[in-house]
Amino acid sequence: MAEERSILLDEARCIGCRECVELCPQTGGTQFPVFERGERVPRVANPGSCLACLTCVEVCRSLALTVDGLRRWEGYVDPRAGNKEAAIY
Ligand code: SF4
Ligand code: SF4
Questions:
Q1: How many domains are contained in the chain?
Q2: Which residue range is the domain that position 57 belongs to?
Q3: What are phi and psi of 44, to 5 degrees?
Q4: What is the CA angle 55-84-66, rounded to 5?
Q5: Per residue in 16-71, pLDDT tens?
Q6: Cβ 62 under 6 angstroms from ligand 1
Q7: 59 domain residue, yes or no
Q8: pTM
Q9: Whose atoms come closest to the Cα of 41: which ligand?
Q10: First-to-last CA distance in the chain?
Q11: Which residue's C-alpha comes closest to atom 1 of ligand 1?
Q12: DSSP H helices in 14-72
């Protein structure tokens, strides 16, 4: 069974643009979508489907998403990179 990711959506920051819903490769057209559209803001429905690609973290203009503790505004470290010191920016 796939490792379940920790996906936090800060509802206070979120503006409900749904960019994360639209661009998550594990949401559109999948059987167990990570995100559901929700009402004011999206809802994390199936964190077990997440691949930790960090697309949602990168596109979120409101800095509202955290995946496995990786947050854009802190200069997150790409977990796919061998060098854990190599922040993306
Ligand atoms: S991309 Fe960010 S601001 Fe837009 S709906 Fe998703 S969490 Fe909210
Ligand atoms: S990290 Fe990738 S797979 Fe996981 S919720 Fe974000 S966009 Fe979807």
A1: 1
A2: 7-74
A3: -80, 105
A4: 35
A5: 999 999 999 999 999 999 999 999 999 999 999 999 999 999 999 999 999 988 87
A6: yes
A7: yes
A8: 0.81
A9: 1
A10: 32
A11: 60
A12: 19-23, 55-59
